[in-house]
Protein 1
Amino acid sequence: MKIAVLISGRGSNLQSLIDACNDDDFPAEISLVISNKADAYGLKRASDASIPTKVFNQKDFSTREDFDAAMSDAIEASGAEFICLAGFMRLLSDNFVKTWHDRLVNIHPSLLPAFKGLHVHEQAIERGVRFSGCTVHFVRSAMDEGPILMQAVVPVLPDDTPDSLAARVLEQEHIVYPQALRIIAERKVRVSGERAIIDGHKTPNGSLINPEK
Ligand code: GRF
């Protein structure tokens, strides 16, 4: 399955997808990386992997709809049939989300539906939750909404800072996003209502308790 990846910055999640796609057995390949920032480090990661890149600068478009339509055309022209958002820091128009309905996923660094938006690790620490994590979800018009596909959980430690928690969560993002893309590309995922259903879904056993006894 050909996919497009949309980024705005560092691109460490993009790198995890590039690395996964480099495996001959992996069922997806990245046909295009798009950034809305010309200086995004992820663009270098893509070029180093010989993946075509395009930059869309919002100054070149008078409306969000025009910007998104140009992106959509470029994605279709690349042959991509699915989109992964990986740190793309721009709201998408309703039209774009509609065009790519159930063919558009995002990774968010919290256990959705908790802690949407920005500064998620600050929010998690302030609220004193004992676990946080990351979520891969299908994208809907409202920010950080949509059927949940996969999540990973990490403990929040008493002396965590937003940075230490972010690093622990990011490590899991890099594991989860390629796994999620694999089952998508294997066509094992379908969306029914607000739920993503996975063929052969294997559930982990037992529970995690924080704090321990
Ligand atoms: C990640 O934490 C991702 O969950 C969020 O934005 C960050 C992007 O990091 N959506 P990177 O650019 O992939 O390194």
Protein 2
Amino acid sequence: MKIGIDKISFHVPNDYLDMTDLANARNTDPNKFHIGLGQDKMAVIPKTQDIVTLGAAAAEKIVSDEDKESIDLVIVGTESSNDFSKSAAVIIHGLLGIQPFARSYEVKHACYAGTAALQQARDYVAAHPTRKALVIAADIAKYGLNTGGEPTQGCGAVAMLVSAEPSILAINDDSVFYSEDVYDFWRPSNHEYPLVDGHLSNEIYINSFTRVWEQNLKVNQTTSQDYAALTFHLPYTKMGRKALRAIFPSMSEEEQTRLETRYDEAVVYSREVGNLYTGSLYLGLISLLDNSDALKPGDRIGMFSYGSGAVSEFFSLELMPGYKEQLTVAANQALLTARKQLTIEEYEEMFEDKLPLVDGDYDFNDDTTYAINKLKDGIRYYNH
Ligand code: CAA
């Protein structure tokens, strides 16, 4: 029995900042952002939207009424929680109207959490093949105005419906993991934004990739030629490219070109959105499927998941017959092109405009399908 991704979708907020405008405002050469980091635009979120609204909006696109009766596991992977106790998963479960006899919870380890959730969902469906699981990877990457990490911000959510005999991708049982206790990026509970040792984080990312890649070749007896594409966690699109190039010395030039062309197809959407933290690997996967004509059913796609701190995993997916008919390419592209460009002043104002920290009874006016319309007693009330 194959188990995997039956449906997949993403959601980003309606506003973005062009990286040329950010570079000009920060007295930086725009090529540093466009070429040096590989980012063209950055998604920006208003205070009335959060991981719940992003996750619900992504999931709504793929969860049918019939699915709502079959889902009994909802997992949200995130490092942008609103609450130290209650999970975003149980709120999204309620907003979507999924049948009540379900297990709903949140998982965390930096940008790795979505993969942990996906693998838990796979194991659950393996034990209960007639049931389905909803996995959401949602985050808001914010480092602060005028910080080193500012050009690598972004936000959004990816939703995946996991089932037996999936229509898009089977998840192979070939995971290789790597853990290393290191402080490259972390956010203690008294910090609004992460603390980051940016250059160390680049180093640990590449080292983690080469470790799991080498281990994968050994354990699974594969070579690079067994992979139609390698897909990476994308904090910014140059990062995965640096890791990919780190394994080029063992490959022919033709092989390098093939994998780098697939890489270019996998980063189309992330260039437009920025970092989704735990959703970034899966936005890369959607971008690859939407933008590549070279893939075919039966192909194996390698996935490198990285969470600072650091936990990483390499595993693979197998493309299913007829997968192309399940993709929503036009809707995905329309979502990105219909967004509104912010001026630098609007971006900075939106960045600093936050939900009140003092308890009270507040009303908000955001008519987006999923948005916070009220905050009272620490409870966020959502449009839906
Ligand atoms: N034209 C073209 N390229 C230029 C340029 C110009 N005018 N000026 C600089 N560049 C290039 C540099 O050569 C460099 O390229 P290489 O890395 O290939 O050498 C690139 O632009 C970046 O330049 P710097 O290293 O000087 O940039 P920086 O000091 O501002 O730091 C950063 C970059 C470390 C990524 C920083 O933005 C940061 O800390 N970001 C947040 C942390 C992060 O994303 N880490 C990634 C790994 S951790 C992870 O994956 C988890 C996660 O999601 C956070």
